[in-house]
Amino acid sequence: MRRIVWLLALLPVLLALMLAAGCGGDDDDDEGGGGSDTAATEDGGDASGEPIRIGASLPLTGDFAEPGEAARRGYEVWMEMVNESGGLLGRPVEMVIKDDQSDQNLVVTDYNALIDQDQVDLLLGTFSSLLNIPASAVAERAQMVYVEPAGGSPDMFNRGFEYLFFAQQATAPHQADLFSEWVLSLPEGEKPATAAYIAADDPFGAPVAEGIQEQLEAGGVETVYSEIYPPETVNFDAIASAIAGQKPDVIAQGSAGLQDGVNLITALSAAGYSPQQMFQASTPSFADQYSDAIGIENTEGIFFAVSYHVDADTPGNPEFLEAYRAKFDEDPAEDAADAFAAAQVLQAAVEAVGSIDDQAALKDWLHENEVETILGPLSWDETGAPEQAFLLAQWQNGDEEIVLPEDVATSDTIVNPKPPWSGG
Amino acid sequence: MTQLIQTLVLGLLLGGVYALLASGLTLIFGVMDVINVAQGALIILAAFITWALWNETGLDPLLGVFVTTPLMFLVGILIYLTTIRWIQGKPPSTSVILTFGLALIIEGVMGIVWTATLHRATPDYFDQSFTIGDIYLRKGQVYGCAIAVGVLAVLYVILRVTWLGRAIRAVSANASSARLVGVSPSTVAALTFAIGVATTGAGGSIAAVLYPFLPGSHYAWISRLLGIIVLGGMGSLPGAIVGALLLGVAETMTATYISPQWATMVPWAVIMVVLLLRPQGLMGQKLREDVAL
Description:
The complex is a heterodimer. By secondary structure, chain A is of the alpha/beta class. Chain A has helices spanning about 1-20, 65-85, 105-115, 130-140, 175-185, 205-220, 235-245, 260-270, 285-295, 315-330, 335-355, 360-370; strands at about 35-40, 50-60, 95-100, 120-125, 145-150, 165, 195-200, 220-230, 250-255, 275-280, 305, 370-375, 375-380, 390-395, 400-405. In chain A, helix 5 packs parallel to helix 6 (about 205-220) and helix 7 (about 235-245) crosses helix 8. The longest helix of chain A has 21 residues, at about 1-20. Helix content of chain B is about 75%, strand content about 5%. Chain B is built from 13 helices and 2 strands, in the order ααααββααααααααα.
């Protein structure tokens, strides 16, 4: 009998491991799977001569298969658009894309192979901080410019790298800059006095919440609750009850997931507590899955941060949308737009320098200049961390709207204060 | 003080829901020595069926219990006849591997039918609460506890009053002697397994309202349920109830007064402490389990 009991003791551990390995995305089967996938130009347009070869390794299978595939689409649409409009420096562009299977070891092998065997001319980054941290080290050692589309963990930028550039607006601690600014700009009487922070224990969630807390505390908003929870937490009743007991004006949650964000909302609603302002890092960007799970009425007024919005009035976005919709018959996911923007950054540097032979000149140019992308203008500090702010989005009347900055906003109102929960 | 009472109430309500989910698991182990690791996947299956009924016909998930329970009973019989039957009498470790495989198959099928996206039934009461003074009670959990009481009462009556119950207890005590007095252990086992699986009908329907789920959600549930029945005593129905309530309260108390960071660790800590200090669990009967082996 004892043996069974010990076996049982091991079982949950096994299950927990499976759970940890299983979360993170669907295994979206894709063609290829292992080999490299070379997509040459179709007709070359006006471009002629030896193609410029750009190498990247993406998680086309494994945990990050979904965003990895989106990133590949972004790169491909960029390549086709460049080739149709005369190429890069008058030469056609050819992408060499490998599949790193969401594996940290494989991504290192892939980038080494791209540099040494395939001898590509330029590099583009992969998806997620997890994969970009080792991959960018390979590029740095080879002294090749490395523009990455997704990977905003602070750990990316504390290694003194010179060739690394992150092609989104900001790093995780600055995910909610516009939200904090807006909250602190509210007139006396409306300005919140207290705030609660709750974050998932992962490289993204915790820095987001810490960033908001730092900014609001500096603006005089008192912190009444600040906790970290394990990402697999299902039951948020105790957390919601403790937060409700403090009656904070602002509740901010840092999380990259969907379930934990949804469970917090339901638990708050059941506790009958609705804050004046509610911010969730990325859960609300899950569109229908989010609104179906918390109830569409409950979405009203919830803030979140995004890098891209299809309706955003940024230069080049209409052309990107047209090409993307023509090729894939659907709107681009945020990850596809981010990849496109990363390629735009590299393109801008190459065109400005006028050559691909001197990588040091490319990185120097990027450190000194601002680049127009479909995400808006981007520029970088000496660590390669971007210096802009994410777009501030809000759920309004059952839709996701961009509310700040004003020049790219899709809605001219901001719902404030947040209406009570439907069940509260 | 209000906070303390509120935390206690939240813990007891959560424990009630846990008791409902753990009852079938402990029943199946107590009688058959089968550790049904697929119980979590069956709960999620029942949750998906509840969701589909609610989504297509608007049937309230609470009424859905009357559809899912007989349906899951049939699923239980089917699983018994096709798989469990062949490993009866084998060491329980065999059943762990077999039912783990079953869980993976069920997860895969659910992924094909309903896709690996988040689902949830959201009837009016899904995020509402009853309030008594300053204390709130989540409606979904209150209904879940009520259903738990109902299911446990039915199980109790079946086990104590009916002929089937006496047969189940006889087989559980000593299968070969039961056979001598005319009880067919295989029929009893089939019915026990099916009853144990049928309880997931009720559990799944309330889980569909309380927490959003996807096909892979069953790992989180089964690990917690195993913690509960190890704490309460493997195979003991009252033990499962006590274990569930204790675990629910321990979890919410930890989240409120220590940190949410430690709350998900509570089931593991409980398993370790129980195994070290009282391997048979709070209400487990060592003798009977030895006989059952």
